[in-house]
Write a structure and sequence with these properties.
With about 280 residues, this protein is an alpha+beta fold. The chain has helices at about 20-30, 80-95, 105-110, 150-155, 190-195, 205-210, 265-270, and strands spanning about 5-10, 10-15, 50-55, 60-65, 75, 135-140, 165, 175, 200-205, 220-225, 235-240, 245-250.
């Protein structure tokens, strides 16, 4: 067939469209690979290496989130090298990061039988929580440097470029420029970085406070779809409600208008809906 390539994944032949990544091809044959930094609406950052697979003839393991499938490739998703790599990736991330509200990292650790204390003795890289605005909190002890927030703030979504990775090695971290607080940066508080963060390193202030008080209860949260009323663009919202109060707003990743992204009004401007003040 034209514009397709045929390759082998774990001994099973699969034909996919040209330009398909190995990660997507693995999904086709129901041999999914774990991911952390990959996000369906962002450019692959190749940062976490959780999704590596083994390609016959390749000296190194390759990142399936960005490597394009080629005709004749022989791919293994669960070879000894791959499994060991995933385990070490999980252990290294757990050695520096608080994974308490990071389901994808917890899943990677579980499927790879990672030992959380192998490199760290159970101690994470302690950092102060930054509460420098009333919309969202930066708890960088939970950050795994997946680059999702940087991509969302850049040309993948917001085009604000308010944050970037600063420092090297163990001291690498997400920064708003010269260690500045967010109010001093170019941040427009759209919260798209919060929406794509997989670990809770960036988290809405309302959710952060509820979790800190032990009042966050996933079982009590319901989701109601609606359309944002602030302008005529037509962004779809999902209102997360607990105890008859809106506690968070998100947008569907597959919505043709938002692709999961919102502006500051859509994501954080919901307080008026539950105000008891007279109009």
């Amino acid at each position: 067939m034209e514009n397709t390539v045929t390759l082998t994944i774990d001994g099973e032949s699969v034909t996919v469209a040209q330009g398909t990544t190995l990660r997507a091809a693995c999904e086709e044959v129901q041999h999914p690979v774990p991911t952390l930094c990959w996000h369906e609406n962002l450019t692959a950052a190749n940062a976490c290496r959780a999704c590596v697979v083994e390609v016959k003839g390749s000296r190194t393991l390759v990142a399936s989130c960005s490597r394009i499938a080629e005709a004749g490739m022989e791919v293994q998703t669960a070879s000894e090298r791959v499994l060991n790599s995933r385990k070490v990736v999980a252990e290294l991330l757990l050695s520096t990061s608080d994974a308490s509200i990071a389901p994808d990292l917890q899943s990677l650790a579980a499927i790879s039988s990672a030992d959380a204390e192998r490199f760290s003795g159970g101690n994470t890289w302690a950092q102060p929580v930054r509460e420098d605005n009333n919309l969202y909190v930066r708890d960088l002890a939970k950050c795994i440097l997946c680059y999702r927030c940087v991509e969302a703030c850049g040309d993948d979504a917001q085009n604000t470029f308010a944050i970037a990775v600063a420092g090297r090695g163990f001291n690498a971290h997400i920064d708003a420029g010269f260690g500045r607080d967010l109010p001093e940066s170019d941040c427009v508080y759209c919260g798209n970085c919060v929406a794509v963060c997989p670990t809770g390193a960036l988290i809405g202030k309302r959710e952060f406070d509820l979790r800190a008080r032990g009042e966050w209860d996933e079982d009590k949260i319901t989701t109601t779809p609606t359309v944002c009323s602030f302008c005529g663009v037509g962004c779809e919202l999902d209102l997360h409600v607990m105890d008859n109060q809106i506690i968070k707003v998100t947008s569907p990743l597959d919505h043709p208008v938002t692709h999961g992204m919102l502006c500051v009004k859509g994501r954080f401007g919901y307080e008026f809906a539950q105000s008891e003040e007279p109009v």
